[in-house]
Amino acid sequence: MIHKSITLDSLAESAFRAMKNSYSPHSKFKVGAALLSSKENIYIGTNVEFDAFSLTVCAERSALFNAVSHGERSFTKLAIATNSQKFKFPCGLCRQALIEFSPELEITLFNSNKKSRKIILKELLPEYFKL
Ligand code: THU
């Protein structure tokens, strides 16, 4: 079997590429996410906003839905890119959604200058809900 071994650089590249497709006419805050599955496949997502504001979906869950739709259930890394100079952490909804699949997920946040910061998902949401 060929081992693909996706680098963090290429995961980041996918996140920035997804960010370009952000549909965020209301907030102008662009987010791109690239989720790496345990099978070494990359799934991207971006944030999509609506005039009915509460319909908005974050980039992270968009990537997760894409991955799950392809049959994936386990993830190792997530790269998140934004158009902000500050590091932006994933919202509470996305933390819960992702942690139900992969508590050990390694998240790398990228700011608009491509500087990065790493964190493990379960550090962002200790004592999370599980049925
Ligand atoms: N957003 C994300 O895509 N991910 C997050 O973790 C937080 C917020 C999006 C949703 C909305 O389109 C915009 O950022 C402002 O909230």
Write the layout of secondary structure elements.
Blueprint: H1 8-20, E1 31-37, E2 42-46, H2 59-69, E3 75-82, H3 92-99, E4 106-110, E5 116-120, H4 121-124
Parallel strand pairs: 3-4
Antiparallel strand pairs: 1-2, 1-3, 4-5
This protein binds tetrahydrodeoxyuridine.
Structure characteristics:
131 residues, 5 strands
Summarize the structure.
By secondary structure, this protein is of the alpha+beta class.
Fold and architecture overview:
The protein is of the alpha+beta class. The chain has a single domain (2-124), classed as Cytidine Deaminase, domain 2 (3-Layer(aba) Sandwich). Helices cover 27% and strands 23% of the residues. It contains four helices and five strands, in the order αββαβαββα. It has helices spanning 8-20, 59-69, 92-99, 121-124; strands at residues 31-37, 42-46, 75-82, 106-110, 116-120. β4 and β5 (116-120) form a beta hairpin. The longest helix is centred in the first third of the chain and has 13 residues, at 8-20. The chain starts with 7 loop residues before the first helix and ends in a 7-residue tail after the last helix. The mean pLDDT is 97. Residues 24, 27, 29, 31, 47, 49, 56, 58-60, 90-91, 94 line the site of tetrahydrodeoxyuridine (THU). Tetrahydrodeoxyuridine (THU) is lined by residues 24, 27, 29, 31, 47, 49, 56, 58-60, 90-91, 94.
